[in-house]
Amino acid sequence: MSDRSFNVLFLCTGNSARSILAEAVLNRVGAGRFNAYSAGSQPKGSVHPFALDLLERMNHDIAFARSKDWAEFAKPDAPKLDFVFTLCDSAAQEACPVWPGQPMTAHWGLPDPAAVTGTEAEKHLAFADTYRMLNNRISIFTALPLASLDRLSLQRRLDDIGRTPALSEQEPLA
């Protein structure tokens, strides 16, 4: 891997919450080194309003945010993908398109904030928690020494990032 810019696709079933948040986070955290995209196997057709609200509150430009089918990224004129990360368990179990160039893949499963029931505050908190978890994982990913890792070592690191526990699951600092 070199110092060039890398294309990363985040996949979820609906492409309305987690993958949209991940796209926004990586485009900010990895500015210049990474180009993030998101898609879904069965896109909802719209981005969840709580995801848009959170991104605006975090000062992200939301002009990019649209729910799209992963088939867009399997076309010949699509960006050549270097990494593909699934964020929900159902997308990880589905038969994915064949990605040209054999990008590195990993599963970074997270609970679906759009599935949370409860008060408005609890729902907003679920989106904020998902954003924090994605920011943590993406920050670890962007800090990897990509140029000095062989493919097997990099795959191991990508898989480890996907096992990074949620903040609420981490042991308290002593």
TrEMBL record:
CDD domains recorded: LMWP_ArsC
InterPro entries: Ptyr_pPase, Ptyr_pPase_sf
Keywords: Arsenical resistance
Sequence intervals crossing the membrane: none
Highest taxon of source: Bacteria
Chain ranges of the Phosphotyrosine protein phosphatase I domain: 6-144
Protein name stated in the entry: Arsenate reductase ArsC
Pfam family, one: LMWPc
PANTHER family registered for this protein in UniProt: ARSENATE REDUCTASE (PTHR43428)
Keyword Secreted (UniProt): no
UniProt keyword Hydrolase present: no
